[in-house]
Amino acid sequence: EMKGGLVSEDTIKQLLVLSIEMADHDKSVLYFHKLFGDPVPKTLSESDNAELNDYMDMFMKNKWYDLVHSVYSRLYVAHPENDEYRRRLIVTLLKTNRIEQARDLATKVA
Q1: Which has the closest alpha carbon to 79: 91, 88, 67?
Q2: Rg (CA), the chain
Q3: How far are the Cα atoms of 1, 3, 56, 65, 86 from residue 62, in angstroms, in the given order?
Q4: Domains of the chain by residue range
Q5: Which CATH class, in words, describes the domain spanning 9-107?
Q6: pLDDT tens digit sequence for 39-60
Q7: With contact defined as beta carbons under 8 Å apart, do 42 and 74 qualify?
């Protein structure tokens, strides 16, 4: 429980990982947004980006594709030159049966 409304970032990270491991979707989304904001900032530091990708991988393993799709859609629109965002967005499109959108995005590169 929060004391005076303040919880350390490390505690939120631990709660996020625990929530994901326990397959508690709602709490996972809540703690993810506490860490990264809602919506996620359009520009992230290299370390924040690596951390975000790690959490998104965990969400994907639980088949929680909607948040992952919205995060990478936002980041890709802000940074269309970023191949990693594009690749990760294509994966979420395929996982959510948006095959035509995935194909269109994949052909933009070729």
Answers
A1: 88
A2: 15
A3: 26, 31, 10, 8, 21
A4: 9-107
A5: mainly alpha
A6: 999 999 999 999 999 999 999 9
A7: yes
